[in-house]
């Protein structure tokens, strides 16, 4: 069935599993949980009532990144021979961050018991989050079943000119002293103090993630992009709780971000993204930085999924 824009949460259910969507909070997922033996298991960090009341995407369980992921240096770049200035887009951060879709209300276009489609139409203007100078539309198709929560992200360039583009999602996971991250990547992007990439190279966390024990979420102070995520698979596990969640992604989600800050020991993000931070200003091979250019009318679509395991 179809629905109109709403400030209410939308619940998807499959047996004891539940997903809460907050379309009015940047098209975010507010919770993903299940009930076992009268105990609620949070697979993603749930949004608090305060975060929902404040409509704070950073307080959600996961939110979409469109039409680019992570930071753009000084909110400026050159594209197709012309400067693009995003400094007036209403973003409160030092550099343009995560695009604008997470700061705009989405609408529920279709919904059933275990599936939903969220839709966003962006038309440029000089107003805050509408400041991105290219028209585009995006959808998120979300499906819940007995094992997996999948999200298919799609976007189409509605402008009459090419548009630089990237996409991803920004999930927060429960973080405990025993949380481990397992993944195989080629290199970590080292960065400046204000988190802009400088070069991709080795780091102990790369080897730790590939080890049987995995990387402890507390081992390093991380807010970094990773290149060469060729398997596009990562697992977050809680060995003491005998449970894990596996992230699988399609191309072009060829890059991964880990946010595990030492200063905020409750926060952990392992993000599927199609471009590294500041990709559009980086003078490196496309394979190392990702990102794309959508021609007028061109579309892109890709799926990622979380598969849970207990026992």
Automatic annotation (TrEMBL):
The keyword Glycoprotein does not apply. GO terms for biological process: carbohydrate metabolic process. GO terms for molecular function: carbohydrate binding; isomerase activity. Coiled coil: none annotated. Keywords: Plasmid. Signal peptide: none annotated. This is Aldose 1-epimerase. It comes from the Bacteria. InterPro entries: Aldose_1/G6P_1-epimerase, Gal_mutarotase_sf_dom, GH-type_carb-bd. CDD domains: Aldose_epim_Ec_YphB. Transmembrane segments: none annotated. Pfam families: Aldose_epim. The keyword Nucleus does not apply.
């Amino acid at each position: 069935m179809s629905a109109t824009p709403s400030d209410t949460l939308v619940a998807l259910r499959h047996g004891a599993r539940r997903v809460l969507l907050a379309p009015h909070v940047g098209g975010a997922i507010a919770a993903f949980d299940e009930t076992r033996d009268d105990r609620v298991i949070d697979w993603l960090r749930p949004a608090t009532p305060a975060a929902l009341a404040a409509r704070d995407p950073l307080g959600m369980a996961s939110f979409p990144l469109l039409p680019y992921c992570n930071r753009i240096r000084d909110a400026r770049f050159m594209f197709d021979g012309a400067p693009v200035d995003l400094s007036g887009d209403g973003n409160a951060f030092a550099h343009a961050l995560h695009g604008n879709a997470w700061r705009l209300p989405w609408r529920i276009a279709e919904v059933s018991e275990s599936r939903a489609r969220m839709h966003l139409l962006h038309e440029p203007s000089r107003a805050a989050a509408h400041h991105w100078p290219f028209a585009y539309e995006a959808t998120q198709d979300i499906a819940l079943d007995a094992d997996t929560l999948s999200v298919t992200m799609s976007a189409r360039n509605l402008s009459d000119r090419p548009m630089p583009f990237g996409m991803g999602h920004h999930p927060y996971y429960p973080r405990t002293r025993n949380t481990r991250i397992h993944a195989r990547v080629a290199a970590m992007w080292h960065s400046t103090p204000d988190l802009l990439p400088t070069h991709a190279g080795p780091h102990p966390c790369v080897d730790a993630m590939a080890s049987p024990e995995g990387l402890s979420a507390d081992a390093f102070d991380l807010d970094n992009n990773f290149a060469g995520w060729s398997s596009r698979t990562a697992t977050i596990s809680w060995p003491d709780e005998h449970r894990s969640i596996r992230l699988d992604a399609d191309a072009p989600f060829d890059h991964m971000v880990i946010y595990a800050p030492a200063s905020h020991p409750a926060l952990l993000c392992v993000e599927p993204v199609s471009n590294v931070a500041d990709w559009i200003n980086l003078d490196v091979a496309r394979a190392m930085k990702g990102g794309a250019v959508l021609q007028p009318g061109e579309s892109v679509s890709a799926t990622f999924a979380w598969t849970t395991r207990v026992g």
